Amino acid sequence: MSKKKIKPDFSKPKDEEQAEIQKPDKEAEYEGLPLVVIAGRPNVGKSTLFNRFLKKRVAITNDQPGVTRDPVEATAFLNDMPVHLVDTGGYKLTRDLGTKEAELDDYVVERSLDMIERCDVLILLLDAGEITGEDEEFIIKMRPYWKKLIAAVNKTEGGKNEAEAWNYARFGFDELIFISAEHGDRIGELTDLIVSKCDFSKVKMLDADRPVKIAILGKPNTGKSTLSNRLTHSENSIVCDYAGTTRDVVEGEFTYAGKNFRVLDTAGIRRKAKVHDDVEYYSVNRAIKTLDECDIVFLIIDAIEGLTEQDKKICSLAFEKGRGIIFVLNKWDLREEQGTKAVKAAREWMNIMFGQMDFAPIIPLSALEGKGIKDLLNTALALYEQLTKKIETSALNRALQDWIDRYPPPASKTAHFKIRYMTQAGTNPVSFIIFATKPEVVPEPYITYLKNRIREDLGFDQIPVQLELKGSRQKWEDR
After folding, report:
1. What pLDDT is attached to residue 186?
2. Given this model, what pLDDT does residue 409 score?
3. Could you please report the per-residue DSSP string of 75-144?
4. How far apart are CA 243 and CA 71, in angstroms?
């Protein structure tokens, strides 16, 4: 069944647990930002211009047309003024009717036109080559937005193609400028034009708490974008049963239980051997890179298929970085058995598959129907509390002494050592340092014992804990 036919309505809560999720009316750091949208047909350089304004690579760029599908959004500073910048998917006139690709193109166009209607400033990016039918149709559709439109003809570096670029003057644009997004030609002039059309009077810097960053990771077609849209009460991510729909990392925000959240919806991660396309390669790399930015990973697992080898690899990467991890068994509504026994059986199976992660919470849900969302978010809040928890050094060392008394370090003539003291090295990820006289001879089972005690006795029972041993001959009391 096509998801287009059963696409849920995220604009209003559907059940009691959804009612507690609110879509915020502000940015994470600012509110009232002017909305600046880059639009045009495929392969004119929209993502390159987006990255140029941000001064970093955020949107994926490639010569292959139609790389960007979901709108990619970020806060950019133009002449030191903040704007909400959006890179849209290309307006594609040609369709191979009846195919999944054509259905996806319809989604992209619909999403792009919605952004254009809402924006304060529209950058219509055009190619300096021959004017195409797609260009002409798109320009006609932009007539209602003429006053907020800036026409920028791209790929004119060093004056190249300017003769052809002047052909766009016949459309009567109020603002027409020739640029090179890749080389930076006349980007300063374009920036001045954009800023001149923006109203910054409503911009306010917020003192809001830092949002909890959630990365939604998993294999293709497990429901990542459906969950992202459900959480944000939006349609930021295109939902389609066409594998590989999401390419860029799509961000969204919401508030739950008084806490701000930022969601990073990522591309599906397949086994390396199955990734042959350059765009998919960059998409997967970008998805994995979100592990450096997020606090908690929602690892989306198909409840019917179960935990796969690829899921285990994703989980291992998150574990190594000390991120909070929640196994999300999506499509739970499609299982024949859905009760407590079914959850217990799923837990036992996952422990067999990946025993190292037996502490990670497992939440069954249906992103499509909105069931299980409350449990998921309550669990995320509990994990974030553990990730940001700090234990006083004096309390740590009282606990350490108790653990040593309970289970003294094994001693032998060749492996004699003493545990001196312990400190918490950091939060989010949570890490500790234990100082010993000969850290290199401390046996691995004893290190595991100490790590388990840290997790179970100090309240870090649902997250990874990093423990490092260092050499010291000085006791804690003598420091």
Report:
1. 93
2. 85
3. EEEETTEEEEEEEPPP------TTSHHHHHHHHHHHHHHHHHHH-SEEEEEEESSPPPHHHHHHHHHTGG
4. 18
3-state SS assignment for residue 73: strand
pLDDT, one tens digit per residue, over 219-245 is 777 888 888 888 988 765 544 444 444
- For residue 181, CA distances in Å to 48, 51, 168, 185, 339 come to 6, 9, 18, 7, 55
pTM for the predicted model, two decimal places: 0.59
pLDDT tens-digit map of 121-165: 999 999 998 888 888 888 998 999 999 999 999 999 988 889 899
* CA dist., res. 326 & res. 360, Å (int): 6
| 211's tokens | 């949002």
Return the SS3 of 176: strand
Which residue, chain included where needed, has tokens 């299980």?
372
57, two tokens: 């690579």
**Under 8 Å between Cβ of 72 and 47:** yes
Residue whose token pair is 């254009």: 116
Tell whether omega for the bond before 211 is within 30 degrees of 0, i.e. cis. no
Give the single-character DSSP code of 294. -
CA separation for the pair 19, 10 (Å, rounded): 11
CA angle, 384 then 387 then 392, to 5°: 130
Residue 450 to residue 467: CA distance in whole angstroms: 9
- Closest C-alpha among 409, 386, 219, 184 to residue 299: 219
Centre a 10 Å sphere on the Cβ of residue 79 and count the other Cβ atoms it contains: 12
What long-range pairs does 160-165 form, CB within 8 A, spacing at least 24?
160/128, 161/128, 161/129, 162/128, 164/128, 164/129, 164/130, 165/126, 165/128
For residues 106-113, average pLDDT: 75
Rounded to 10°, the helix 373-387/224-232 angle is 90
The torsion region of residue 133 among left (phi > 0), alpha (psi -120 to 50) and beta comes to alpha
DSSP string spanning 363-406? EE-BTTTTBTHHHHHHHHHHHHHHHT----HHHHHHHHHHHHHH
Our CA dihedral for 464, 384, 25, 73, rounded to 10 degrees, sits at: -20
